[in-house]
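Section 5: illustrative case.
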């Protein structure tokens, strides 16, 4: 069985590309915290993630550097020959499911432009004395 479940934060914005056949593929690096048992010092592993098809487009639109996500997928090891003739190996996680975690950003949009005051307050809590209309 090849199953990987990771929880972490994006190191940078996802990079969306399209194959020659038009298939969407996004890639990003996920920082996953790791604790050492001897002194509880916290470090992170930086794991390359690849997402395909519609999920790749969703990631490109809604994820950004610092986004917290939960990923389920499979580990893949591939190899290729470098320009100097040496054989290189790449280990990455192919994401099959992704769940957004943490709070939504309130200060910027996906284009990194400030939101209006009205947009920032949208979805804020309803005061106790007001009725919910449904």
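Designed sequence:
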């Amino acid at each position: 069985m090849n199953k990987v479940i990771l929880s972490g934060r994006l190191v940078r914005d996802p990079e969306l590309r399209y194959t020659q056949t038009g298939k969407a593929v996004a890639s990003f690096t996920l920082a996953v915290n790791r604790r050492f048992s001897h002194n509880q010092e916290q470090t992170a592993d930086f794991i390359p993630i690849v997402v395909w098809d519609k999920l790749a487009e969703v990631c490109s639109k809604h994820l950004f550097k610092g986004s917290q996500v939960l990923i389920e997928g499979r580990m893949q090891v591939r190899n290729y020959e470098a320009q100097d003739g040496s054989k290189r190996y790449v280990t990455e996680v192919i994401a099959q499911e992704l769940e957004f975690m943490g709070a939504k950003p309130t200060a910027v949009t996906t284009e990194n432009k400030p939101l209006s005051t009205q947009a920032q307050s949208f979805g804020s809590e309803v005061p106790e004395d007001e009725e919910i209309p449904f």
